[in-house]
Specification:
Number of strands: 3
CATH architecture: Up-down Bundle
InterPro entries: GPCR_Rhodpsn (IPR000276), GPCR_Rhodpsn_7TM (IPR017452), Olfact_rcpt (IPR000725), Olfactory_Receptors (IPR050427)
Shape: globular
Strand order of the largest sheet: 2-1-3
Family: Belongs to the G-protein coupled receptor 1 family.
Bound molecules: 2-acetamido-2-deoxy-beta-D-glucopyranose
Protein name: Olfactory receptor
Order of helices and strands: HEHHHEHHHEHHHHH
Radius of gyration: 22 Å
Number of helices: 12
GO molecular function, one term: G protein-coupled receptor activity
CATH topology: Rhopdopsin 7-helix transmembrane proteins
CATH class: Mainly Alpha
Structural class: mainly alpha
Pfam families: 7tm_4 (PF13853)
Amino acid sequence: MDVSNKSAVSEFVLLGLSNSWELQMFFFMVFSLFYVVTMVGNSLIVITVVVDSHLHSPMYFLLANLSVIDMSLASFATPKMITDYLTGHKTISFDGCITQIFFLHLFTGTEIILLMAMSFDRYIAICKPLRYASIISPQVCVALVVASWVVGVMHSMSQVIFALTLPFCGPNKVDSFFCDLPVVFQLACIDTNVLGLFMISTSGIIALSCFILLFNSYVIVLITIKQHSSRGSSKALSTCTAHFIVVFMFFGPCIFIYMWPLSNFLIDKILSVFYTIFTPVLNPIIYTLRNQDVKIAIKKLKNRFLNSNKATPQHYF
Ligand SMILES: *[C@@H]1O[C@H](CO)[C@@H](O)[C@H](O)[C@H]1NC(C)=O
């Protein structure tokens, strides 16, 4: 294609997080562990929500959707990084790099809108409880999920189209463990590109605006809970603090990296670990440890599984 003709660079080298062998071994073990916990924990949430009819409500459907996105976010770059530690292979093709940018923005964009949908759901449930059933109908819930994917696709398309217009002619060392626009942009053979800086910081500004919106809605929700402290309010409080921890851990790094795209700090690398490796593992931990309904549902699921294991042999022998 003429895109690759224009670009002299056909592959990038991912420098990863560290050169030291000991640190690499450490990262290999920690990230592998996190990856396994992310996949197992989030699958467990999806299975529990789908199987248990007590959890068939918009809040848990949205949570299960978030788990699906978290698994995708954990999988677009981390497995490659983990296996690269073993093989010592560090390159990624030009197309692979663009694909990583696409998926990174697809999953983070979708996750941001989904987190907003979840806060909207909690806001209505707690501040307008009488109108909840009429506002958050199953159709609205599906519409929120579809909308978050549509926004995610549109956002990531815009980022990728921009990345494809950049000429790459020389340096190809990406100082990170996956391709992201702020880092790759610094390798392009152009003088300071106002449009580029604008494109990148727009992501940061959008993330910041969403975060302020989310922050306000959770503050209103928390104040409402405090005012009507009654039965069930501690449950609402723990749900909302859980949501808020996820929101904070996810948005903080995104906003920092994208608002100051040309800063090239070690801190950028550390922060990118946050939203690709730490946040995806957070959901299952927070929800399985703090949410009574999910805990009970998982226990029931376990009993059902154990009983069916015991029952099957009796049927056949
Ligand atoms: C995602 O949300 C939709 C809409 O409520 C729901 O129908 C679907 O089952 C959810 N997906 C998962 C994996 O739970």
